[in-house]
Design goal:
Helix content is 69%, strand content 8%. The protein folds into two domains: 94 residues, 2-Layer Sandwich (Transcription Regulator spoIIAA), CATH 3.30.750; 236 residues, no CATH class. It has twelve helices and four strands; from the N terminus they run ββαβαβαααααααααα. By secondary structure, it is α/β, with parallel strands linked by helices. The N and C termini lie far apart (90 Å). Strands 1-2-3-4 form a four-stranded mixed beta sheet, covered by helices on one side.
Length: 373
């Protein structure tokens, strides 16, 4: 490697021979070049001459990138046109680092109004994507009931198992504790009037009409909804969904519909189980804390709970199953192609599912009161 200076304003680097990791030209390092550049206070331009260069590898890219960075920091022109065309293309490729998807950049220079506008635009785009996804699911469901496409039972059976048998322990624990808490809260006031027998009515109505379905829905949102998002998100990262599209297989029909159908069928059964465990939890408080006997508690629960309350709870659980499955699949299909995006998709699926459950519960409750049921 040789130096040539022109009027102390232009530095020409002549590189000859082999520029390889094992044998750098003339044993000169990038620090030697930087030291030479710094020794010329009037330097304005750095050029290169590669006419005698024979073999080179990736070490030359590191060499050139460091020199270019030093030139940029010192307001010196780095004449990349003097490089061979092949090295220019590889250097541009090395510098063109794509923005990592799934990681948001925080722009502190934005004003509050700009941030609000960006949030509104993001919300509009998210709503558009959600409506498109729902439309595709509806079309797939119509194709299913019309017999234009079918899926094998081997696809849906593992999903049903994951949503049902594997979820029973956590549903049992949470529902029993919720019934126990409701009984304790009701007993605080009812015991003051000697009406502790009405704890059975309180727990029975609350669990069968609302709480059984809501608790089962929340549990499945945190457990199964997140699992759906993680599964589909991982498939998106591994480009498996793109492979399905290439083969002409609809991801909505092959991946989403089995999950929606499985969870919508299983949720009413989980709701019944949650109702039972909640009543058992309340009964434990009635038997061991309020001195009630089993038949008193059973008869009061049976007389208080109506068939309308039972069907409202079942209907709510069916709706919750659809909402949880759709939320999990939607966030999974929207997942970006990075490891962190899979975790974000799972988190977003849980949040979306719980918000949807709360909104649906409010709507169904208001409609039930308007209809008098």
């Amino acid at each position: 490697m040789k130096y040539k200076t022109i009027n102390n304003k232009e530095l020409l680097l002549e590189i000859a021979g082999n520029f390889l990791i094992d044998a750098v030209c003339d044993n000169l390092t990038v620090y030697d070049v930087i030291e030479k550049i710094d020794s010329l206070p009037e330097l304005a331009k750095v050029r290169f001459d590669f006419t005698e260069l024979k073999n080179w590898d990736s070490s030359i890219l590191t060499f050139l990138k460091q020199i270019k960075s030093h030139c940029v920091n010192n307001n010196i022109i780095f004449v990349k046109e003097s490089l061979p065309s092949g090295i220019q293309r590889v250097l541009e490729l090395a510098e063109a680092v794509p923005e990592r998807k799934g990681i948001r950049k925080i722009d502190s220079s934005k004003s509050t109004l700009e941030s609000i506008g960006d949030s509104a635009i993001n919300f509009a785009n998210s709503s558009k994507d959600m409506l498109e996804f729902l439309g595709e699911v509806v079309v797939a469901f119509l194709r299913l009931i019309s017999g234009r496409y079918k899926f094998k039972g081997t696809i849906i059976l593992p999903i049903i198992r994951e949503c049902s048998i594997d979820a029973l322990p956590i549903v049992s624990l949470i529902s029993c504790l919720v019934g126990l808490i409701l009984a304790f809260v009701g007993a605080v006031q009812l015991v003051m009037f000697g009406a502790q027998i009405y704890v059975a009515s309180l727990v029975g109505i609350a669990m069968i009409r609302v709480m059984g379905a809501v608790m089962a829905g929340v549990i499945m949102a945190g457990r199964t909804g997140a699992a759906f998002a993680a599964q589909l998100g991982t498939m998106e990262v591994n480009e498996e969904i793109d492979a399905l599209k290439t083969l002409g297989i609809s991801p909505i029909e092959f991946l989403v519909m089995p999950r929606v159908l499985a969870l919508s069928v299983i949720m009413p059964l989980l709701c019944l189980y949650a109702d039972l465990m909640g009543i058992v939890g309340g009964m434990l408080v009635g038997l061991f804390m309020l001195d009630l006997n089993f038949m008193e508690y059973y008869n009061m629960t049976r007389d208080s709970v109506s068939l309308n309350s039972f069907w409202i709870g079942i209907f709510q659980s069916f709706v919750f199953g659809i909402l949880v499955a759709l939320s999990g699949c939607l966030r999974g299909m929207q997942c970006k192609r990075s490891a962190s995006a899979v975790g974000e998709a799972a988190t977003s699926a849980v949040v979306t599912s719980i918000v949807a459950i709360v909104i649906a519960t409010a709507i169904i409750t208001v409609l039930s009161n308007i209809m008098g049921i």
